[in-house]
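Ticket #4471: structure export looks truncated?
Reporter: QA, pipeline team
Priority: medium

Steps to reproduce: submit the single chain below to the structure queue and open the exported record.
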Amino acid sequence: MARKQHPKQEIETALRYAEAHGWRVEVGGSHAWGKIYCPYNEKDCRCGEFCIASVWSTPKNATTHAKQIKRVVDHCVFGEQEAEI
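Actual output as written to the record:
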């Protein structure tokens, strides 16, 4: 079953970008629209936790939030290492 689309087109595009790079998008949560999860699921992640980022349903600036989502995907420590190989 396909996931629910994000209401803001810029953010939906960023979520598709994340999915294309192997990240999992889960809809739902208490305050967030959903979350994205790193495909590498490594405990040695840069933040000491597995790479997880919240996706807001109504951010103040949708374009900026979409850029932040892409930045998280692009700067994943393990994704960068794989790209160098």
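Status: closed, not a bug. The export was complete when the record was re-opened. Leaving a note from the reviewer for reference: The longest helix spans residues 62-74.
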